Amino acid sequence: MNDAPSSPALPRWARAVDLFTVALLVLVVQVWAFGRIDFGTWLRIGETWRLWLIIVAAACLRHYFVPHPSLPARIFGFVRRGVRDEAFRSTWPTTVTTRLAVLLVGYLGVVAVGFPPGAPPIRVSNNEAANLAFRWDTGWYMQIALEGYRYEPNSVGQQNIAFFPGYPLAVRAAANLLGSQRIFGERELPPGMAMEQLQQRFLAAGLIVSLIAFGWGLMWLYRLARQHLDDSAARSALLLMSAYPFAVYFSAAYTEALMLLALAASFYLVGQQRWGPAAAFALLGGITRPNGFLLAGPLGVIVLKQLLEKRNAGAPQGELTRHAVIGLTVAALPAFGVGLYSLYIYSLTGDLLAWREAHTAWGRSYTGFPTLFTPVTLITEQGLVEYTTSQPIEALNAVAAIAAVVMIWPITTRLGLEYGLLMLLNIAPPMFFGGFLSMGRVTSLLFPMFFLTASVLSERQRQNLTVGFALLQGFTAILFFTWRRML
Q: What is the reported pLDDT for 280?
């Protein structure tokens, strides 16, 4: 927690005691709400009176030696500053309205349109509202969060090692906070019913992680956008991104929201030279998605630009060296995160890149340039109307990909090399390994597209485009939540 500028400086030990006290209070609330907490086999917390004794003792010790500012005053000040923060006030209406609207449209699609034959293939509840977030790849993430990774060396089908651990780890932590450990421990439920409740708890945790990560990511994006845009354009950029037709994934138990948080926060924090939190978010990007290591390139560009500015300003060699070592180390952490996961996969499979090979089961294999021209050939042979009628989802993905490619150069010239490199590194590899497959989903994370769009359009044009995006997002939400393929 940060104190207000007028508050007396707290000793580090007092800050540590305050943090420890707040953590214990969180545990007390969790035990009260959800029951016993198990930390493996070495620690179980079922009663809170011991925690209360430690809390009271720690608080008394801290306030005896450092009475001001008090812990309640610090907590109140932290919350007040957070609520008054410009980034929070500018983004929470967008977060709430767009994410809940997508879920509402998805639910209405389920009850009004229904499922195609054979769907849904898996579910965790007969209640369609409770089951809503369980779609498509969600099953893989929930399996990893619940059971961990499995590898079948003789299998040629899909395997869960293709999915990186960042999001499942966050889901497992959130599920534990929601009392998932207690379901099999204290309740006398039939095994089937207990497993169903456990799955529902993990699914709820997954959706909560996605929604919180998206809202937090938008706050970092707003701060980043304000470096390039005025307030109105910055808000419009975030609204355009939230209404983007393929932004439906931000309302699902998918990795997109967590990756957006890692991208936005690391970009902003490296730019501000706040190395500690920047390192955490950079590493998060590396363990959340297979292409997360590519974030190291744009972050490295930001650090090199800072070094050039310092050198031109006459900074001493020692300062330049320290900045280079710390900054480039932080920039390299996304690649380090991928390396950590690769080492784990090696211990499981004997192959560092087995996770990459697993992606071929989803159609992610090198296709090169020819696949990119397939839509052009089909349009030439069939005509535009016939092509879009027979391949509507591929057409939407192709439009998203082509728009992103066209924007790379103007983004580079207007926003900076790091933004253009982010675009290029996230567009080229998936297009060469699958053509236009899932390119709408890929582009949903490319925030420079929306910064550029907001900077070149008038206010009325931005509003009109947002409405058009939202209508198409409603269409993709119905497809997604009713188990109709929209890749």
A: 94
